[in-house]
Amino acid sequence: GMQAVYGRYASDPMAKWFGPTIPATAAWVFQESWSFTVAIAMVWFGDSACLASFANRALGAMFLVHYSYRSFIYPLRMRGGKPMPLFINLLASAFCMFNGYLQGRLWTRMRVFSLESTADVVYLGSGF
Predict the structure, then answer these.
(1) Are 113 and 123 in contact (CB under 8 A)?
(2) SS3 22
(3) Nearest Cα to 93, choosing from 11, 22, 43, 44?
(4) Per-residue pLDDT of the chain in tens (128 residues, 90 and over written 9)
(5) What count of other Cβ atoms lies within 10 Å of the Cβ of residue 65?
(6) For residue 19, is it left (φ>0), alpha (ψ between -120 and 50) or beta?
(7) Could you give the dihedral angle defined by the CA atoms of residues 85, 87, 90 and 94, in that order, rounded to the nearest 10 degrees?
(8) DSSP bridge pairs for 21
(9) What is the rounded distance in angstroms from the CA atom of residue 41 to the CA atom of residue 118?
(10) Does an H or E element contain 21, and which?
(11) What angle do CA 7, 11, 8 make, to 5 degrees?
């Protein structure tokens, strides 16, 4: 099968087709921070009922804590990361923007989760 052109396969001859490389730490922070940033931005456009719900705030907090670690702490703890091609980093960034938008939009605008509904409790509990 086809091998990825980053990480352990960064030296693959195909990697040059994906643009210049950037340091792993910078690439990781840039690509992952979009999930955190876009989700935070969704709060400004949120519905007051969604923002007042404990369950929505809990889901949002779990997402934001996870991505704050993944975006800002983990990259500083990486050891020996290999450079990543710029195009691959931009693709990962686009995914993270979309992920942040979908997750943030869900708990700030689209649905008020409650602890009275069994389905909502199960959904909320699956995040722990």
Answers:
(1) yes
(2) strand
(3) 22
(4) 667 666 666 666 677 778 898 999 999 999 999 999 999 999 999 999 999 998 899 889 999 999 999 999 999 998 888 888 999 999 999 999 999 999 999 999 988 887 776 666 676 677 64
(5) 11
(6) left
(7) -130
(8) 85
(9) 30
(10) strand 21-22
(11) 25
Q: Which residue has the tokens 């087709």?
A: 17
Q: Identify the CA nearest to 69 among candidates 101, 116, 29, 108.
A: 29
Helix runs in the chain, H state only: 24-44, 48-52, 54-68, 74-77, 86-105, 118-125
pTM beyond 0.85: the answer is no
Instruction: Assess contact for 20 and 85: CB atoms under 8 A.
Output: yes
In a 13 Å sphere around the CA of 119, the CA atoms on its Cβ side amount to 3
Region at 82 (left for phi over 0; alpha for psi -120 to 50; beta for the rest): beta
Q: What angle do CA 18, 35, 55 make, to 5 degrees?
A: 155
Encoded tokens for 42: 């969704």
Looking up tokens 């975006």 gives 71
